[in-house]
Design brief:
Belongs to the glycosyl hydrolase 31 family. The chain has four domains: 2-56, Spasmolytic Protein, domain 1 (Irregular); 60-292, Sandwich (Immunoglobulin-like), CATH 2.60.40.1760; 300-589, Alpha-Beta Barrel (TIM Barrel); 807-953, Golgi alpha-mannosidase II (Immunoglobulin-like, Sandwich), CATH 2.60.40. The strands form twelve sheets. Strands 29-28-27-24-21-20-19-31-30 form a nine-stranded parallel beta sheet. The protein has an eight-stranded antiparallel beta sheet with strand order 3-4-5-6-18-15-14-12. A six-stranded antiparallel beta sheet has the order 43-44-45-51-47-48. The protein contains 16 helices and 51 strands.
Length: 953
């Protein structure tokens, strides 16, 4: 009994130390200050988790008392007698409520009775819902002091439980804490995570506030990056999943605690929490994107290879690099120009000397079947035509609230802006700039922006837009000696200064500033690297303190319209700053990364996370933006990037070129990797269609397909490309083989397996479990296809325009439940449209959709059906041949029929190998399947089966 009591005591102490709610999250705690806040001081021991706070709240005493209002789903909350908030006065009374939205979403709100800023009022979520077999319930504990609530499944599993206390609601500080049902949490962003799954062995704080801050992969770095995504997914112990969105646009943070659980803090708005029940990971994301909005469908050409560089010295420099890549016959679709093409970095201009003839070069690229994307920053210099046209048409900009706040030392330099309150700041142009107000309720600003794109397109016929610096970014805010003072390419103009004392200071230096400020140390404020939080937009109705994180989202929404109207086509928009539902309007690149192996590995995780966030058109700057790339690392990054939807090589000025043509080995590997990617573009494009229609992910964590295989929950260096392809990239220096995990997938009737899809043992079944796979630089990335799949493919060409003219082929990889070649099945689908028309409604876009189904029977008969729906695509290539893995024996070529009629087979090109068991069947003439209806290709084999000598890698 003594031993048992001691163990229970130790466990109690351990549990308490794993659930400490930090009372000094801003840092600088000491015992005296801690106790002055009414908190507990207890030094951590060597056995406590890393990051254990010494000063922590008496959380069980902090919170509110709940009183029923008479409505079953609403309670009135009054502040209890426990400790008070150190970060401003607690609101005395609050309203707690919950409701179901449609069939699958549960919403919990904690808010002031007085109206406060709500993100939901300013983001145009469609708020649609998906059917679900699960329904969540909210359990309110109103008989306790403090009150708490829990969200539970029908089976009683608790997903969210606030009974650990710590609820605080002050004007500029809101906190809620919860325990979690497992340690398998994914998401929250935008931050750089070195593992796909959050680490609950320690206390870790992650800031969420849009800032012009490059990622750092050198060790644990919790800083906030360019966008804000307060969304996470949990995998529960039984393989089920759920998701949670805390819809808030203010500066915020999440602190994971080992129990497991987390503390969420924000400095404005309300607690507006949405629960998505799944129960599968895929269903969670479908429910989430139904609610926030499905992602856009990129133009087909936007899935091609893209090349960019900041620091082209001239148009000729750009032409030379493009020509070098093309000379290696590398499939290549998009050439970019960074801000170098502009006249002194002003939007909607072209450099008059080194870039003369730029528009003609873009037209020449179009003749080659290539496309062009240009960078457009939101910052508009306050003394040239575009700015004046904005003023003339009534466009609004981010402003000071009152005239007396305006920095006259800056404003008086600009006659166009002199009599305005426009907040002028420093970015790339030589002179001060203003930021357009994309939340303008009159839409005059949005229309001016669209008109500028249309006007400029007449000069340079670009095809897509890359919007950068839209956190928004401001150089040198409140700095005495900003970095550009030492840059010979930028004049030493006065930077923006935000009030840091007096009655106006609490917007930029509120009582609590979040990890998004404290991470950077003393002297930083919310406005560091951006504009003042006391600024206003929305014609003065909105405080930037509340809307800052919406800036990139709002610019993306308007820029998508601008691209549509300027080009008359779909094109694509790439945005640096994002927020929930940004994927409806734009893709994202993972920021100004560095040419290191660590950054290469982090790109594997970042692409998966943004698919969870509903932004599947995502990728990294291949080979790294900052720093000089090595040959081997760039080769491996080109190979990895060939699986990312957004596939762009990009680096910074004054660094060596790093396009594939720099090194013959990289050129050869890139050609090979790009050819594989281009052959799979019909599959990849169909995945993006499914994302736009159903909310599916494109790049997804392995556990999405194998949620009951616990080994998949922490796989950070491999991923699924849709439901069918497993990718295990080489991401370490000197690596010649990859250590990968091949998951076991089982349902009640089917066991899935994988076959090699790359140079090593192509077409052969691979062993389930962890294995080493050869990965020399001369091989493509280790890639495997899941049985039961049919993948539409086409021959690679040098551009997507050329490849779209070539006929399809199908890769068929049947299931073999028991290894006996009894009834085997496979299925897949193809989406096809013209690839570039504007898509206002994915359900109404003219297209052709084909479902493929393959069955091989015990009698040695095979049937492949092509079921075509909609049949609205203006043109669609035909089907030229089939490739079938693990086929039992050579078919009887004379037995082939199409809808019962004899089907001619090209026996000279068709072949079967009894060693590899790969069958390739070329049709005498390609089969058209562009009309609605079903066609069936049938054939038979000799009944004799060979069950031995099946090759397994």
């Amino acid at each position: 009994r003594v031993v048992l009591s001691s163990l229970l005591l130790l466990y109690s102490v351990y549990a308490q130390d794993n659930i400490r709610l930090d009372c000094y999250p801003e840092g600088g705690a000491n015992e005296q200050g801690c106790e002055a806040r009414g908190c507990v001081w207890k030094a951590a021991s060597n056995f406590d988790p890393a990051g254990t706070p010494y000063c922590f709240m008496k959380a069980e005493d902090i919170g509110y008392i709940a009183t029923p209002t008479g409505n079953g789903d609403e309670w009135s909350l009054s502040k209890n007698s426990g400790p008070r908030s150190p970060w401003g006065s607690d609101l005395a009374s609050l309203k707690f409520s919950f409701k179901d939205i449609g069939d699958s979403v549960t919403n919990v709100r904690i808010e002031d009775y007085q109206k406060r800023f709500e993100a939901a009022d300013h983001v145009d979520f469609p708020r649609n819902t998906e059917p679900s077999t699960e329904h969540l319930s909210v359990k309110v504990r109103n008989d306790s002091n403090p009150f708490s609530f829990a969200v539970q499944r029908k089976n009683g599993l608790t997903l969210f439980d606030t009974s650990i206390g710590g609820l605080i609601f002050a004007d500029k500080f809101i906190q809620i804490a919860t325990t979690l049902p497992s340690k398998n949490m994914y998401g929250w962003g935008e931050n750089l995570h070195q593992e796909i799954k959050h680490d609950f062995t320690r206390y870790t704080s992650w800031g969420m506030f849009a800032r012009d801050e490059p990622p750092n992969s050198q060790g644990l770095d919790t800083k906030n990056l360019y966008g804000v995504h307060p969304f996470y997914m949990m995998m529960e112990s039984n393989g089920q999943a759920h998701g949670v969105l805390i819809l808030n646009a203010n500066a915020q943070e999440v602190r994971t605690i080992p129990v497991p659980g987390y503390v969420y803090r924000t400095i404005g708005g309300i607690l507006d929490i949405y629960f998505f029940p799944g129960p599968s990971p895929a269903e969670v994301i479908r429910q989430y994107t139904a609610f926030i909005g499905r992602p856009m469908l990129p133009a087909y050409w936007a899935l091609g290879y893209q090349l960019c560089r900041y620091g082209y010295k001239s148009l000729q420099d750009m032409k030379d690099r493009v020509a070098s890549v093309r000379s290696y016959q590398i499939p290549f679709d998009v050439a970019y120009a960074d801000i170098d093409y502009m006249e002194r970095y002003k939007d909607f201009t072209v450099g008059t000397s080194n870039w003369a003839g730029f528009g003609d070069y873009v037209r020449q690229m179009h003749d080659w079947g290539m496309h062009n994307i240009l960078i457009f920053d939101p910052a508009i210099q306050a003394d040239y035509d575009s700015f004046q046209r904005g003023l003339d048409t009534g466009a609004s900009f981010i402003e000071w609230e009152r005239q007396y706040e305006v920095m006259r030392s800056i404003q008086d330099l600009y006659p166009m802006a002199k009599n305005t309150k426009i907040m002028l700041v420093v970015v790339w142009p030589d002179r001060h700039v203003g930021f357009p107000d994309f939340l303008d309720p009159t839409n005059k600003t949005q229309q001016w922006w669209i008109d500028e794109f249309k006007r400029y397109h007449d000069n340079v016929p670009f095809d897509g837009a890359w919007i950068d610096m839209n956190e928004p970014s401001s150089f040198g805010t409140n700095e005495d000696h900003p970095f550009f003072f030492d840059d010979p390419d930028h004049p030493n103009i006065e930077p923006l200064r935000c009030p840091t004392s007096g009655p106006d200071a609490d917007w930029d230096i509120p009582p609590y500033q979040t990890e998004a400020v404290y991470h950077y140390g003393f002297g930083n404020i919310l406005a560091t690297k951006t504009v003042c939080m006391r600024a206003v937009q929305g014609r003065g109705a909105l405080r930037l303190y509340n809307t800052h994180n919406l800036y990139g989202w709002s610019e993306s929404r308007t820029t998508q319209k601008a691209v549509y109207e300027a080009t008359g086509k779909r094109g694509v928009v790439i945005s640096r700053s994002t927020y929930p539902s940004s994927g409806r309007y734009a893709g994202h690149w993972l920021g100004d990364n560095t040419a290191t192996w660590e950054d290469l590995r982090s790109a594997v995780i970042g692409a998966q996370e943004f698919n969870l966030f509903g932004i599947p058109y995502v990728g990294s700057d291949v080979c790294g933006f900052n720093g000089a790339a090595s040959e081997e690392m760039c080769l491996r990054w080109q190979q990895l990037g060939s699986f990312h939807s957004f596939f762009r090589n990009h680096n910074s000025k004054d660094l060596p070129y790093q396009d594939p043509a720099v090194w013959p080995s990289v050129a050869a590997a890139s050609k090979k990797a790009n050819e594989f990617r281009y052959s799979m573009l019909p599959y990849l494009y169909s995945l993006h269609y499914s994302a736009s229609l159903n909310g599916d992910t494109v790049i997804r964590p392995v556990f999405f397909e194998f949620p009951h295989d616990s080994e998949t929950l922490g796989l950070s260096e491999q991923f699924m490309w849709g439901p069918s392809i497993l990718v295990i990239p080489a991401v370490y220096q000197g690596q010649t083989e990859v250590d990968g995990y091949i998951p076991l997938g089982e349902t009640s009737s089917i066991t899935y397996c994988f076959y090699s899809l790359y140079d090593y043992s192509y077409g052969q079944k691979v062993t389930i479990g962890r294995s080493l796979f050869p990965a020399p630089t001369t091989f493509n990335t280790p890639t495997f296809v899941k049985s039961g799949s049919i993948l539409p493919r086409s021959p690679p060409a040098l551009t997507t325009v050329a490849s779209r003219l070539l006929n399809f082929n199908l890769l068929i990889v049947p299931n073999d439940p028991d290894g006996s070649y009894n009834e085997r099945r496979a299925s897949g689908n193809l989406y096809w449209d013209d690839g570039d028309s504007v898509v206002d409604d994915i359900t109404k876009n003219p297209h052709t959709e084909t479902a493929f189904n393959y069955v091989y029977t015990t009698e040695g008969k095979a049937n492949l059906t092509l079921s075509v729906a909609y049949a609205q695509a203006p043109s669609q290539p035909s089907l030229e041949y089939l490739e079938i893995f693990d086929f039992p024996s050579s078919p009887t070529y004379t037995s082939f029929t199409l809808d019962g009629k004899v089907l001619s087979i090209n026996t000279q090109k068709s072949k079967y190998s009894p060693i590899t068991r790969i069958l390739t069947v070329y049709f005498g003439s390609p089969i058209s399947f562009s009309s609605a209806g079903t066609q069936t290709i049938s054939w038979s084999n000799a009944v004799t089966m060979l069950h031995t000598n099946r090759v397994e890698a």
